[in-house]
Each structure stands twice: as structure tokens, then as C-alpha cells.
């Protein structure tokens, strides 16, 4: 259909965060592809920021058109660094870190505000971090189906300490349009921190009640913002 071909002028590239892999995007992917978008999914090794930026750029460069980069959680750091690539048209942050120059997950989480929930991150094991399985659902995926949340807890991807310490060299949001979904029930990245980062980035912000895993629990809300961003980018270039 003509509209579908217009819709697919950009590829949407989905970038996951720490402790998880790209399969969590499945329902968002389904909604977007059903709407006529081309969608690619990055599988970050989450060993170091440099490795994850390289993995993301490989996917960007495999596309025949410009891309809209979407990052969840730590994936926000990855898209902030990778998004300066000339093929990237815009950025969408989903309950994500959006660091400034020199920023990293480590320095963004080092001074939690009083009373903010503390993510149940276990002490590093051989250079990798895990969340306490017993507390994973409550902190990361409180509104996800209990069986799926238990599976996410059991199938955690080791998150390299080096990835948390990876610092952004030049934030893409300073030169590219951005959108941000604040998850108002997030127990991993406090909503006030999300609001601060989104405002600093000059992002178009929407707020939705949901856990840190809002991309899993509420794929329609997440896909709606991504589609809105894609359409606004198209309108700005026509």
C-alpha cells in the first residue's frame, strides 16, 4: 500500500538495556511491523559501551535508509553515543539513561535521591552484575505477567561493569531530535531522574504508568511513541 511504503522510509532500530536481550522487544516489533515499519533489533553483548555502540552501528549501517534509534534503560546510553552517526535521524528513549558528555550509568546512579528505590544489584561477580532473582520482578518488571517476569529473572544477561562505566563522548541528543517515555512506576531509574534527563535533552516527553520493563508490559504505549516520533520526523523532512 502507498501509505505503508511512506511509513517505511526509515528503519526503526531497537536497542535493549542491561540484564536482558533483544527478545523483550518482540511485541513492540510486532506492532510496528504490522503498521508497515521496517524494524531491526540490536543484540548488545553488554560487555562494554564501545562494544555495544559498535554492535548498534553495524545494524544501523546494514539499513538502506536513515534510522530512528530507540533505546531502553542502558540502551539509552548506547543510542546517545551511537546516535551521532549521520544515518541516525532521531532518538527515542524508553525509561532510559540519556547522559550528557562524559556521563555514564555509573555516575548517573551514584547519588540516588533520598527515598528512591535502590535496584537489587548484587555485588560484581568476575566483572559482571546481576539483579537478585528474588527481587527482579518487583524492581524491574512489576507489571509484567508473573511467569514472564520469573523467566526474565532466570534468563538474565550478565551486565559488564565496564559497560556501566562507559562514558559518552558526544551526546547525540544535542544535535538530533528526541522523544522520551517516562515510566512513572519505575523502580530502577527513578521517574524524577527520567524527567531531569528528558528535559535536559530537550525531548518530546510522554508519561505512562508502568514499570521499568514498560516495553514488555505495555508495548502499545511504547510503539505509539515510536510511531509518533517516526511520523514527526517524516513531516519535518517533507
Automatic annotation (TrEMBL):
InterPro entries: AB_hydrolase_1, AB_hydrolase_fold, Sec-Metab_Biosynth_Hydrolase. Residues 12-224 form the AB hydrolase-1 domain. GO terms for molecular function: hydrolase activity. The keyword Hydrolase applies. Keywords: Hydrolase. Pfam families: Abhydrolase_6. This is Alpha/beta hydrolase. It comes from Ktedonospora formicarum.
Amino acid at each position: 500500500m502507498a501509505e505503508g511504503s511512506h511509513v517505511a522510509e526509515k528503519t526503526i532500530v531497537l536497542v535493549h538495556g542491561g540484564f536482558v536481550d533483544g527478545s523483550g522487544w518482540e511485541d513492540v516489533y510486532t506492532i510496528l511491523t504490522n503498521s508497515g515499519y521496517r524494524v531491526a533489533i540490536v543484540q548488545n553483548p553488554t560487555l562494554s559501551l564501545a562494544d555495544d555502540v559498535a554492535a548498534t552501528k553495524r545494524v544501523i549501517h546494514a539499513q538502506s535508509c536513515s534510522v530512528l534509534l530507540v533505546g531502553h534503560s542502558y540502551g539509552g546510553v548506547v543510542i546517545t553515543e551511537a546516535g551521532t552517526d549521520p544515518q541516525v535521524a532521531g532518538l527515542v528513549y524508553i525509561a532510559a539513561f540519556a547522559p550528557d558528555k562524559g556521563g555514564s550509568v555509573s555516575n548517573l546512579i551514584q547519588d540516588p535521591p533520598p527515598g528512591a528505590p535502590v535496584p537489587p544489584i548484587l555485588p560484581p561477580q568476575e566483572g559482571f552484575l546481576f539483579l537478585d532473582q528474588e527481587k527482579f520482578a518487583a524492581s524491574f518488571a512489576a507489571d509484567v505477567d508473573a511467569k514472564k517476569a520469573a523467566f526474565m529473572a532466570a534468563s538474565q544477561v550478565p551486565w559488564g561493569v565496564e559497560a556501566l562505566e562507559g562514558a559518552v563522548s558526544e551526546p547525540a541528543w544535542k544535535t538530533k531530535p528526541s522523544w522520551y517515555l517516562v515510566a512513572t512506576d519505575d523502580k530502577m531509574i527513578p521517574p524524577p531522574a527520567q524527567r531531569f534527563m528528558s528535559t535536559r535533552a530537550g525531548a518530546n516527553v510522554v508519561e505512562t504508568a508502568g514499570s521499568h520493563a514498560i516495553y514488555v508490559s505495555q508495548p502499545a504505549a511504547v510503539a505509539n511513541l515510536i510511531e509518533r516520533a517516526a511520523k514527526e520526523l517524516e513531516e519535518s523532512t517533507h
